[in-house]
Amino acid sequence: MASQFDLVIVGAGPAGLTAAIYGARARLRTIVLDEGMPGGQVKTTHKVSNYPGFPEDVKGAELAGLFAKQAERFGARIARAVEITKMDLSSREKRFVLDEDEEITGRAVIVATGAKPRALGIPGEDTFRGRGISYCATCDGAYFEGKDIHVIGGGNSAVEESLFLTQFARSVTIIHQFDEFQAEPATAKEALENPKIKVMWSHEPRAFLGETALQKLRVENLKSKQTSELPTDGVFVFVGMVPRTELLKGVVPLDRWGCVETDDSMQTSVPGLFVAGDIRAKRFRQITTAVADGTIAALAAQKYLRETR
Amino acid sequence: MSENVREIQAAQYEAEVLGAPEPVVLDFFSTECPPCEALAPKFEAVADQFKGRVRFLKIFRQGNRDLAAKLAVTSSPTLLFYKGGKEVGSRLTGDIKRSEIKQTVETMLA
After folding, report:
1. Distance, in angstroms, between B85 CA and closest chain A CA?
2. Contacts of A127 in chain B (CB under 8 A)
């Protein structure tokens, strides 16, 4: 027998958990499904400085925990570490099978599956993933005590995580394709003033090299077109994100970046299906914008449930 | 923790992993690692599913750094698969799905 919900939310990041807070407070039977633990990208961000209400920085993992706790306080159920193995959104009552085992249904669905780190797509990346290449500084940073490491990227994540990595590494060399950071000026300034951080401007990675583990990083100087091989103890990659829309392929149209188009109430072309957060086609992706999307999606879902009762 | 998952130390690696008569899945995990926390319940669920046929072990990376380095494990979590004392198949790392573990184990058993 399937468990019935009013609102099924897929993805327990800031967008999904905010939608859950609003859904549960509106007395909707609300469930949030996540493949991992709640928090989305926030839980692997070492600190968050731009979320209102936290005048001192807050650890990403702590903020993620608070979002989840607040949603659960109002009665939302968060199903952790579950995988959707079957899904049918075409009928009025939408159905999900979890881990090939449990079946649930819901009349309104909010997909807030977010984004995952973009891979570079260069030779050696698949071979040395986990053997010298990492995408998570909080997971692996502490193992690089006294080591010389490289960071690829120049946006907020790359620069902030580089600063975090200086706690452990002897040196952090940032490889960046442009000749200035895209990160917020305050963060960029802090990095440029950090004696452990060096920057190779106008360079792009070309290949990861090594025998059983990563040993060298091949880079190209975009101005002189010369390539060189840099010995490295480890490389962290922060070159943006790609939307996690695998679930929605063939269900709704995706734009050329793989994002989902919605109207301003987060409604998709499928009745009762809303999307929120980083998977939505939009200009800016922040925790605050994800939270806003989640709010709007939950309010629009309530309206939809009322009108189609 | 499920009774079908045991934690080992580096000193037991040879006997428990390389010397195992059945195939082995070994999980290198860390603290302060959200994907490791997320993996734990999935790892246990798959371990329960293959009970008696496949050995599921976990090892704390911080406490066993030399072995991790020797095996070139530099990310947490990383899953390694063994058959007949040899590592087989591709390692899984980062955000690992339950279905990926199951599929890799099934391939190893086939």
Report:
1. 18
2. none
CATH number of the domain to which A108 belongs:
3.50.50.60
Chain segment B23-62, per-residue pLDDT in tens: 999 999 998 888 999 999 999 999 999 999 999 999 999 9
Q: pLDDT per residue over A150-200, tens digit each?
A: 999 999 999 999 999 999 999 999 999 999 999 999 999 999 999 999 999
Q: Which residue spans within chain A are E strands per DSSP?
A: 3-10, 30-33, 77-79, 84-88, 94-98, 102-111, 115-117, 133-134, 148-152, 171-175, 197-200, 203-210, 214-221, 227-231, 234-237, 241-243, 273-275
Q: How many CA atoms lie within 13 A of A5 on its CB side?
A: 28
Instruction: Check pLDDT > 90 for residue A1.
Output: no
Nearest C-alpha in A relative to B41: A81
Q: Domains in chain B, please, with CATH?
A: 5-109 (3.40.30.10)
A213 interaction partners in chain B (CB closer than 8 Å): 72, 74
Q: Domain limits at A208? A: 119-237
**If pLDDT is split at 50, 70 and 90, which confidence band does A135 have?**
very high
CA closest to B37 among chain A residues:
A37
Point out the residue among A44, A83, A143 whose CB comes nearest to the CB of B98: A83
Residues A240-265, mean pLDDT to the nearest whole number? 93
Catalytic residue status for A140 = yes
